[in-house]
Design brief:
The protein is an alpha+beta fold and about 300 residues long. The chain is built from eight helices and 13 strands. The strands form two sheets. Strands 6, 7, 8, 9, 10, 11, 12 and 13 form an eight-stranded mixed β-sheet that branches. It is elongated, with a radius of gyration of 24 Å.
Length: about 300
């Protein structure tokens, strides 16, 4: 007899062959939310499949596929009312209480969303940019001048990033996080490096304005890595903010931080370098330990990109 392990409930139950996860949960006394009555008209019964390596769940039916496509659910997000069990499965309920229900129902609109609150996994190029010595700049300048300068800076950077098919996902004080997503991951990497070089050039051109207006110059450091991330939305009915999470994001941040130690302006990880090395002119290279990461990692300073190769 197949078994279903509910990790969030710390329970393992038996299921009848061909029984849905929802039916088995309710029969075992697990209070599994299903606002629409298990008819695939909402997503409140959705679960995260932790382990189904042997394919012990039925494929999505048309009704489940419609909702999955609408909300961008990855393959490991299933509707418990439609996922039928044919073997052992490990899962976790995603809608636990009334507050989760409210958030889930809030996202059910005719228009749908670009990114669901459960998250979508993507393979992307990740760019971090940070202004050097910004603290000393902000201590000297008036707060209004600091805001004005940042608006000018972010306006320039956003135009460059979007021109290179990227999107800014987060501003962190004087820093920014941008993602580049394309069907071909190598294209994403090339777009991110191209954007970074243009950002550096734009910052160079901004120096005369900074010195004339503020009596100071500013530099930026940029780090790029590529890998898998999960993109989701945080929605409280008043605001809808996209967020990106994953070890690859943390790794890209560590790459950017190494610019300070190495005295460089643009560093890329080995995964980016290996894909583009025939197109890159590089400066210094190093193998170094990164904070919070095991082992040593290759980093490469990029000086130019030849898009014709």
């Amino acid at each position: 007899m197949p078994s279903i392990e509910f990790l969030s409930d710390n329970k393992k139950i038996d299921a009848e062959q061909g029984e849905s996860i929802l039916q088995a949960a309710l029969r075992a006394g697990i209070s599994h939310t299903h606002v629409c009555g298990g008819k695939a008209r909402c997503t409140t019964c959705r679960v995260l499949i932790i382990d189904d390596t042997d394919g012990h769940l039925s494929p999505r039916c048309d009704r489940e596929k419609l909702l999955a496509d609408k909300f961008g659910f990855s393959s490991n997000i299933r509707l418990a009312c439609q996922a039928k069990v044919t073997g052992d499965v490990k899962t976790r309920r995603l809608v636990i209480d009334d507050e989760d229900v409210d958030i889930t129902l809030l996202n059910i609109t005719e228009e749908g969303e670009s990114f669901s609150s459960t998250g979508i996994e993507k393979s992307v190029a990740i760019l971090f940019a940070d202004i050097r010595d910004f603290t000393s700049f902000s201590e000297i300048q008036l707060p209004y001048d600091v805001i004005h300068m940042l608006n000018r800076y972010f306006y320039r950077m956003r135009q460059i990033i979007e021109h290179n098919h990227g999107e800014i996902f987060n501003y962190m004080g004087d820093g920014l996080l941008a993602l580049f997503d394309a069907d071909d991951c190598n294209v994403s990497k090339a777009n991110s490096v191209g954007a970074a070089l243009q950002m550096l050039d734009s910052m160079d051109k901004m120096q005369s304005y900074l010195e004339r207006t503020y009596g100071q110059s500013l530099e930026i450091g940029i780090g790029i890595h590529a890998g898998d991330v999960v993109i989701g939305s945080i929605d409280d009915a008043c605001n809808d903010k996209k967020m990106v999470i994953g070890d690859s994001v943390n790794f890209a941040s560590r790459v950017e931080s190494e610019n300070k130690r190495l005295g460089s302006r643009l560093l890329v990880s080995e995964s980016v370098y290996e894909s583009l090395k025939d197109k890159l002119e590089t400066g210094l290279t190093c193998s170094t330990e990164l904070k919070g990461k095991q082992g040593r990692h290759g980093l490469y300073e990029v000086l130019s990109l030849d898009t014709d190769k």
